[in-house]
Write a structure and sequence with these properties.
Blueprint: H1 5-23, E1 30-31, E2 39-40, E3 49-52, E4 55-62, E5 69-75, E6 86-87, E7 95-103, E8 106-113, E9 120-126, E10 137-138, E11 146-154, E12 157-164, E13 180-186, E14 207-208, E15 216-224, E16 227-234, E17 241-247, E18 258-259, E19 267-275, E20 278-285, E21 292-298, E22 309-310, E23 318-326, E24 329-336, E25 343-349, E26 360-361, E27 369-377, E28 380-387, E29 394-400
Antiparallel strand pairs: 1-29, 2-4, 3-4, 4-5, 5-6, 7-8, 8-9, 9-10, 11-12, 12-13, 13-14, 15-16, 16-17, 17-18, 19-20, 20-21, 21-22, 23-24, 24-25, 25-26, 27-28, 28-29
Length: 406
Amino acid sequence: MNNHPLVSIAFLTALFILSSSCFGQWEPDVRLTDDPAESRPPQNNARSIAAYGSLVIVVWTDSRDGSGEIYFKRSKNGGTTWEKDRRLTNNPNVSVNPSVSISGSVVHLVWEEDRNGNNEIYYKRSLDKGETWGQDQRLTNDSASSLNPSLATTGPNLHIVWQDNRDGVATNENEVDNYEVYYKSSKDSGRSWHVRSLPASLIQRDKRLTQNIGHSYLPGISASGSNVHVVWSDARENNFEIFYKRSTDGGLHWDPDRRLTNTSSPSTYPSICAEKSSVHVVWQEYLTGNREIFYKRSPDTGTTWGEDTRLTNNSSISSSPSIATLDRGVHVVWADYRDGNEEIYYKRSRDDGITWGPDTRLTNSPGYSTNPGVSVTGKAVHVMWVDFRDGNPEIYYKRNQTGNTN
């Protein structure tokens, strides 16, 4: 055996580099659901996965019980192992489009449901990291449809947005409903809901954020401290564009709407994340003749915005982006057809969205993979999506334990 010190050092160095490279890569796919029915995450930009410390939670709609119900699954060790699926709703009507957020030991969940004859927004919470759950709370109560909720939390402050057509419900088949974006908040970790500090008689009043004759739909929300940021797709300019609105006092007052895109083709499905003064938005756009993923950044809490950045560039469809940020790392996932079938792709910025690394293909299955969600905690990046490789839609998960390092 050669015991020369230079040889030993070279060997150990090579072994360290190899180990670090392997450890820093994406781990194999993990199948989270296994039943003959459909399991699907929301198709809007709501958060279907949330991570906080070593706790990772995934939510989705599942039809294994005959109608769509909200299910969740959790890992208490950062995604290494997963507990059994748990059913969170139980009624004969469809429950869809869940959005989840974690703040300390409290897990918050919102979704839409038609148990009362029309779609309303519901909420429930767990005070012990998802071990036990409280009762369902109905957050909206009007005769129109309340759809596609999105949830954000900062400590005990909860912020929810959704689309609602209570302001322009079609009266005949030749008319089109006019959806607007609405907002609701809780300042006490979901115990009570309000849009500001008002007398008890006014608690539960919803706040209308948009007011125009075009559709405002698929809103997304993010919060950092007292700053609350909302994006949505809006047709007020006779073309779907991405609009933005912010509150700098925790949802009490709101700045005017701001148009973030200005193109001749539709811009849809926005996703937003914020950390400190940085705000990041991604969306899908038809500018180049097919759908591509675009990105925009504000370095000053939404006051000014940089130019649009095109993140994908191929002849196939790129769609359904989701974005997350932590410690200047910005992470985007989306569905992409460049490989002949729909696969999940990933892209990362190490410097707060200024520059971007190459695309990384995360899936390689015979069935298509779509509707991804992403969350970041510590150094780890967590991704979930729906996958058809098993013959029916199932929920899959993947992680990179050192994906959020520079």
